């Protein structure tokens, strides 16, 4: 049996259970009963102004249906449940989002299989609680999105530990039934371990700390490339961060932290990623990738953020609340050596630095409006190619 049909067979239980659940959901209200219908609609207005030396400013962006998803949460037994969600993304692509078959053999222990995320504080946070439209260079360069995985999560007192064995995403593996698997997808492997937890400090004060490590390997014929460019700039020829095909494997060490006192909070993550260069890489000794962010926020109504101890995640306040925020992003990646003028004994580094101000209004249950105003500066690592990108982004969001 060839690999792609075999993987599609593995997806059939999710589809079959989903179709059975869909029939039951017709008689159930969302959030009521063992089968709950859910969905999400994200519509973004993206306006960019791209400035480069010696060239006229270039506008970019437009209106984008970022996500239009439907899904189900189904409690099959007291210990077994199914979650799945998918639909249209970025105006046209039909993709899987989360797909999770979860079994709870004992209190505080969950075994999961499907299309899952394993690590990263902001990466694991639901779009219902995210404070910014984009996860920035840290999200694109460091964390994994939903990937095929088998994982175990255990809660011990105030700590949450996760161990995941991962492949590529369902969509890249051809399980979206939109063509064959992407080149190299069937060979991707990863192991990720995360330990995180929260400590109440008393008086509406709370501290979250966590760390995770990951090792990945890729198809030798298709080295992994690391890249980042602003949302809405697709199709624009700019000096974005792009290493080109680089790594046959890599290792990552990341830390995460959050602290809040009353209506004020601080959150940040940082990571060091060490690539093992492929023989095909243009640079045989690339420098490490470094990326991270820090954000501060304030709720003028005095609302306090919650905490999901089971998953070790920060949770946004309820409907009617407003958040005001500021965020700083940074990333350093290996520059393409074919265009750099830096001597070989001093590896070239491409950099991005960004500042974003934001506001979130949770109009009522399920409805959110987000506003982001930011500027990012790109330095690809060689003279005369720097760029400044100013952005105004607005999102209307509905979840049920």
How would you describe this protein?
The protein is mainly beta and 400 residues long. The chain has helices at 3-25, 121-124, 136-141, and strands at 35-51, 58-75, 80-89, 93-106, 109-116, 147-156, 159-166, 189-200, 205-217, 227-228, 241-242, 247-261, 264-277, 289-298, 306-308, 313-315, 322-334, 349-364, 367-379, 387-399. The longest helix has 23 residues, at 3-25. It is globular and about 60 Å long. The model is unreliable at 1-32 and 338-346 (pLDDT under 50). A hairpin with a 2-residue loop joins strand 4 and strand 5 (109-116). The strands form three sheets. Strands 1-2-3-4-5-6-7-8-9-12-13-14-17-18-19-20 form a 16-stranded antiparallel barrel.
**Tally of alpha and pi helices:** 3
Share in β-strands = over 45%
Task: Give the CA-based shape.
Answer: globular
Helix content: under 10%
Low-pLDDT windows of residues: 1-32, 338-346
The major pleated sheet works out as: 16 strands, antiparallel, barrel
| Secondary structure tally: strands | 20
- What class do helices, strands and sheet pairing give? mainly beta
Précis, in short:
With 400 residues, this protein is mainly beta.
Give the helix/strand layout.
Layout: H1 3-25, E1 35-51, E2 58-75, E3 80-89, E4 93-106, E5 109-116, H2 121-124, H3 136-141, E6 147-156, E7 159-166, E8 189-200, E9 205-217, E10 227-228, E11 241-242, E12 247-261, E13 264-277, E14 289-298, E15 306-308, E16 313-315, E17 322-334, E18 349-364, E19 367-379, E20 387-399
Antiparallel strand pairs: 1-2, 1-20, 2-3, 3-4, 4-5, 5-6, 6-7, 7-8, 8-9, 9-12, 10-11, 12-13, 13-14, 14-17, 15-16, 17-18, 18-19, 19-20
């Amino acid at each position: 049996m060839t690999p792609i049909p075999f993987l599609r067979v593995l997806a059939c239980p999710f589809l079959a259970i989903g179709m059975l659940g869909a029939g039951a959901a017709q008689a159930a209200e969302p959030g009521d009963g063992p089968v709950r219908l859910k969905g999400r609609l994200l519509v973004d207005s993206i306006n960019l102004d791209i400035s480069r030396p010696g060239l006229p400013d270039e506008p970019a962006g437009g209106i984008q249906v970022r996500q239009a998803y439907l899904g189900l949460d189904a409690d099959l037994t007291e210990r077994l449940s199914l979650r799945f969600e998918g639909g249209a993304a970025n105006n046209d692509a039909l993709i899987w989002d989360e797909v999770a078959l979860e079994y709870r053999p004992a209190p505080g222990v969950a075994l999961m299989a499907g299309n899952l995320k394993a690590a990263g504080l902001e990466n694991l946070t639901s779009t219902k609680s995210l404070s910014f439209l984009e996860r920035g260079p840290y999200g694109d360069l460091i964390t994994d999105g939903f990937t095929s995985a088998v994982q175990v999560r255990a809660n011990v007192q105030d700590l949450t530990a996760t161990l995941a064995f991962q492949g590529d995403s369902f969509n890249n593996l051809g399980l979206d039934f939109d063509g064959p698997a992407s080149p190299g997808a069937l060979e991707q492997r990863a192991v990720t371990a995360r330990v995180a937890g929260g400590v109440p400090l008393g008086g509406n004060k709370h501290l979250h700390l966590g760390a995770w490590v990951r090792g990945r390997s890729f198809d030798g014929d298709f080295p992994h490339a690391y890249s980042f460019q602003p949302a809405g700039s697709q199709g624009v020829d700019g000096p974005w961060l792009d290493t080109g095909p680089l790594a046959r494997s890599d290792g990552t060490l990341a830390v995460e932290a959050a602290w809040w006192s009353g209506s004020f909070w601080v959150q940040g993550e940082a990571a060091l990623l060490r690539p093992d260069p492929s023989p095909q890489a243009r640079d045989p000794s690339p420098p490490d990738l470094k990326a991270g962010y820090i954000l501060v926020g304030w709720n003028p109504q005095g609302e306090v953020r919650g905490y999901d101890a089971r998953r070790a995640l920060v949770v946004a306040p309820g409907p009617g609340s407003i958040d005001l925020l500021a965020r700083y992003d940074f990333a350093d990646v290996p520059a393409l050596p074919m265009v750099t003028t830096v001597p070989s004994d001093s590896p070239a580094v491409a950099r991005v630095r960004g500042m974003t101000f934001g506001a979130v209004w949770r109009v009522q249950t399920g409805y959110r409006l987000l506003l982001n105003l930011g500027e990012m500066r790109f330095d690809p690592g060689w003279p005369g190619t720097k760029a400044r990108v100013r952005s105004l982004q607005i999102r209307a969001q509905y979840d049920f």
